[in-house]
Each structure stands twice: as C-alpha cells, then as structure tokens.
Amino acid sequence: MKSRKILFVLALSLGMFATSCSNDDNEGETIVPIQGKYNLSQTGAIIDGKEVLNDAIQNQSGCSRDYLELRLSNTAVIGDYNGSDCALVETTGTYVRSHNDLTLTIGALSTTSDIMNLTNKELKIKDKVTGIITVYTR
C-alpha cells in the first residue's frame, strides 16, 4: 500500500513538472536576458527570400568593434570607435523590450526592431521599418 502511494505521488509530481515546463505561454519569446554588452558583428537584409549578412562596415579598421550595451536600468549605450586614433564616442539613450520587440530611443530618434535571435552569444535584430538586420555578438 505504501509503495502505491509513493508511485502515485511520483507520477503526480512528474505530471505537474511536465505541464509547468510548457513553453506555450511565452509565444516564442526567448527567456535569455537581453541585458549585456554586444559587439557589432554583421549587417544585412533579406534579399529574394534569403538572409544576406556581411561584416559590419561601421566597424573602423584597426579599432575595437562598435557596440551596443543594454543595462538593467533600461539604459542603452552605443559605442562608436572612429578616426585614426580610434576615439570612442558613446551615445546614451533608453530601450524597452516588449516580448520579441526591442525599441531603442536615442535623443529624438526611436527605432523598433524584431528580435530574430537572442542567445548567450548573439543578439540579432531586424528593423521593422527598413528591414535592416543587425547582428551583435557577446
């Protein structure tokens, strides 16, 4: 009798665990935190139904890669290295994430992008207006 109770509790626990791990309520949204510092890696677009990406020409040759830093305080920092001395210019704004949308506001300019991929190593976004794809790596 005692072993039946143990089996029943075990089966009930496994059933509850399996249903609690369901991914249905996040509608495809990734659970990886978006906060972090991302180096600009590639840019591109979808051409004839295929994703075409190239090394980001925004990165100045011989300098560190430009970056996007998303902080816990919803502050966005864009780092741009340029000139012969690779001078760093940082521009600060804000960001908002809503499901798989990322809205960056820098000064009076606001852009909203679809989050195409977010992993521990990559953030890939696609601008909703221009369709430009930007890939950042950590």
UniProtKB/TrEMBL annotation:
<feature type="domain" description="Lipocalin-like">
    <location>
        <begin position="34"/>
        <end position="125"/>
    </location>
</feature>
<dbReference type="Pfam" id="PF13648">
    <property type="entry name" value="Lipocalin_4"/>
</dbReference>
<feature type="signal peptide">
    <location>
        <begin position="1"/>
        <end position="18"/>
    </location>
</feature>
<protein>
    <recommendedName>
        <fullName>Lipocalin-like domain-containing protein</fullName>
    </recommendedName>
</protein>
<keyword id="KW-0732">Signal</keyword>
<dbReference type="InterPro" id="IPR024311">
    <property type="entry name" value="Lipocalin-like"/>
</dbReference>
